[in-house]
Amino acid sequence: MLSWTSETWPIGAALLQYPGTLPDGTSTTMADDAAWAHVLREVRLAGFDHVDLTDTWLRVGDLPPARLHTLRQLLLEEGLGVSAVSVSRRSILDHDDAAAAANVAYSYRTIDAAAELGVGIVCLGLHQPLTADQQAAMWFWHEPGAADPDDPEVYRHAVTTFRELGTYAAERGVALSLEMYEDTYLGTADSCVRMITDIGLQNVGLNPDVGNLIRLHRPVEDWRTQFEKMLPHTNYMHVKNYYRDLDVATGAYFSAPAPLELGFINYRAVVEMALDAGFAGTFCVEHYGGDGLSVAARNRDYLRAILATKLALRAGAVTPRPEAAPCALTTAAGNNGQ
């Protein structure tokens, strides 16, 4: 039975819109208390009670114990819970062997930091740093990124490494969520389910971030089918949406970021599917471009409204409508019958 209501369900703000480097060139990870407090307060003032500690803003895995303690105090002062720690573009299969080894070590440190902060989820993935072409594009997903090789030995290495990380995390009360991302071993719904099945640990699940695929300028599997396959294995959800269109005459695709309720994916249906699958984890609302925090707040409110409806329907607690005058159709029908 669910312990959350629509108002208490944890929905964290992603911090994608906050840079990892301050204007003076200082890394946010090395910044002072005031720089951290400014961002956390802005998130709280936008109406959030949870935040996803996205490491494009702050690398908690690189913080010494004293700074972790400071971060925890700042979160407490703002009344912010942490929905998860999300690791971005630190693949354990990076094409540079030294970087891959460093990323594995960083993943272990991030698990330790999450445990120290009392955070229950660390989100990992296999996506690698943006290429020069991706960085130059209007939207980075317009250009192809690094891809995992079609190599059974490399795949087995990924499974083994994630299993070792998952075992380590379980010993510290932390779960791992593996994020869907194109052209990796987590690049399709089927490959995501295969990876989770092969890892075979209860505390390692999926983050079915289907938005990462819907934005691509190429054919992708229907979003409904993707969610149907992955939701039974899901323990955390990044949610974002995109406009998507296809010019059939030329085969050209179009995509651009959209608020959750306006884009191509119907998240009213996704939430119902998630509840049907028994999902009781936390959400993280993401958005690229523009005022990302305001759109994320809009997405949060949209999710809460849908949760209120779906949970009420499941409980059979739909509030009856107040008494009202007969509508025009009823009145007309009555007159016609006289």
Please describe what this structure looks like:
With 338 residues, the protein is of the alpha/beta class. The chain has one domain (11-336): TIM Barrel, CATH 3.20.20. It is built from 11 helices and 10 strands. The protein has helices at residues 33-45, 65-78, 97-117, 132-136, 152-170, 189-199, 211-214, 223-230, 267-276, 292-315, 328-336, and strands spanning 11-13, 50-54, 81-86, 121-124, 175-179, 204-207, 236-239, 241-247, 252-258, 282-285. The strands form 2 sheets. Strands 6-5-4-3-2-1-10-7 form an 8-stranded parallel β-sheet. It is globular. Residues 329-338 have low confidence and may be disordered.
Topology:
Blueprint lengths: L10 E3 L19 H13 L4 E5 L10 H14 L2 E6 L10 H21 L3 E4 L7 H5 L15 H19 L4 E5 L9 H11 L4 E4 L3 H4 L8 H8 L5 E4 L1 E7 L4 E7 L8 H10 L5 E4 L6 H24 L12 H9 L2
Parallel strand pairs: 1-2, 1-10, 2-3, 3-4, 4-5, 5-6, 7-10
Antiparallel strand pairs: 8-9
- By secondary-structure content and strand pairing, the structural class works out as alpha/beta
Quaternary class: single chain
Please tally the β strands and state the result. Answer: 10
In the CATH hierarchy, what is the architecture at level 2? Alpha-Beta Barrel
CATH class descriptor name: Alpha Beta
What is the residue-mean pLDDT, rounded to a whole number?
94
- The total of helices stands at 11
Could you name the CATH homologous superfamily?
Answer: Divalent-metal-dependent TIM barrel enzymes
Number of domains: 1
Low-confidence stretches: 329-338
Q: Please trace the helix and strand order, writing H or E for each element.
A: EHEHEHEHHEHEHHEEEHEHH
Ends apart, CA distance between termini: 52 Å
Shape: globular
